[in-house]
User: Fold this.
Amino acid sequence: MPLLITGGRLITATDDYVADIYCAGETISRIEPAIDRASLPPGTDVVDAAGKYVFPGFIDPHVHIYLPFMGTLAADDYASASRAALAGGTTTLIEMICPGPADEPWEAFELWRSKAQGLAAVDYTFHMSVVRFEERVRDQFRKIVGAGVASFKVFLAYKGALNLSDEHLFAAMKLARELGVIVTAHCENADAIDALQKSLLAAGHTGPEWHGPSRPPAVEADGVHHLCTFAELLGTHVYTVHTSCDPAVRAALAARYRGVNVWIESVIPHFVLDETYAAQPEFAGAKYVMSPPLRAKANQEVLWHGVKSRAISTVATDHAPFSFRGQKEMGRAAFTQIPNGIPSVQERIDLLHTYGVCAERIDLHALVDAGSTQAARLFGLYPRKGTIRIGSDADLVVYDPAFRGTFTKAASHSKVDYNAYEGWQRIGRPSVVTVRGAIQARDGQFVGTEGRGQFLAREPTH
Ligand code: URP
Ligand code: ZN
Ligand code: ZN
Assistant:
């Protein structure tokens, strides 16, 4: 059905103006100060956006939905994750494909893709994890890139599981350079963490509050530096995921200063939660165990300044959904067994608005840039996604900045049994969310079509 959005304040990474938007089909057809309704076909759906912002659909470039990890399986599927994303204004997800070292990469790609088909209500694409790289699998990675997955993921962390040896890391980054593929990377030194974990457990430090001390900022900064050294040697373009602290941001910026093509992602939990949450009594801190861990509060201002100054390109979520009952509880005897992750796909944009824009830490343009535009640019989706212009996909978020409420588990669509931001004040919410011209969510409720989401094939752009 054709769609007209009237009188909204259109906010992109660079522009701010009032206009009407008309979408005859899946893309934006017209943007004009006042579109005459008489010129539109009968049955056009009209959304009154007066007094509201209209943002480009938000892109979350780092989520986990199907994730076998730490002896369990992430709690969401594409139906629940899509609903959560849409309720929070996110219209495109980039999921990490995370196979085990013994799995065949092409089979993993097909498996992950099958999990989205028929269930996704948002558009989606993937980063392909390289957890093993031998000559034998080289052609499979070429084929995966040819199928439209133009980004790799590597883990410098998780010894004995997803961690890639230096030999394989170098070879994978070399192939990425040849193919023009950007390498996204979890940067923490796996061996240092392993040694620290062992000595903490041996000293009887088993609770979730010890997760942070087992992975201090220096361990992350070392990982960033290591990745950037390989990038410097090879010319590969790299992207540090969930960059959490001042030393890690500095390591990336130092590399950028010497000419390395490195971009920085941070994730919303690190902007608003600090290390004290993981120290909550009676094992409640387990809800706040993620990697890299929540940091000392002083790091939060560094991240906000990074977004404001554009030193940090994107704010993602690293949505990794594990329930407290039965999943986080697997680590009651040892923090090393707590599945890592803090689900946030529904809350990201409202948190950025409430604690970023309304607290005057960032402006609306930085919100759009870090929440949508930069992800589209870096991962080959721009200008189809990430902006509001004629010809772009009609992924639009009509956002009500006057809404007042709180974050609650009751309102969340994720299958996880807790909300990390329970009871927190919330300013603003998406009123209407469209994906390629179809209204998929209204006022936090899913009103769309399951399975309508499309796989986004991407070309290498680096
Ligand atoms: O704690 C996290 N980040 N869990 C998900 C896996 C990863 O490292 O991204
Ligand atoms: Zn990670
Ligand atoms: Zn992740």
